[in-house]
Amino acid sequence: MIAALHAEWVKATTLRSTWVCLAGFAVAVTGISAAVVGAIGDLQAAEPDYDAGLLAFYGLNFGHVAVIVVAVLLTAGEYGRQTVHDALVAVPRRGVFLASKVAVGAALVLATATVTALVSAVVTQALLGPAGLSLSKLARPTVAAALYPALLAVVCMGVAMVMRDQTGALGLLVPFFFLVSPLLELVPVLQHLAVWLPDRAGQVAVRLHPRPIDAFGPVTGLVVLALWAAAAVLGAWWVLRRRDA
Amino acid sequence: MIEVRGLTKRYGAVTAVTGLTFDVAPGVVTAFLGSNGAGKSTTLRMLLGLDRPTAGTARIGGSPYAQLRDPLRTVGSLLDSSAPHPGRTARAHLRWLAASNRLPGRRIDEVLDTVDLTAVADRRVRGFSLGMRQRLGLAAALLGDPAVLLLDEPVNGLDAEGIRWLRTSLRRLAAEGRTVVVSSHLMSEVEQTADHLLVISRGRLLADTPLPDFLAEHSAPGTDHRSLEDAFLALTTGADT
Question: What is the pTM for the complete model shown?
Answer without folding.
Answer: 0.93
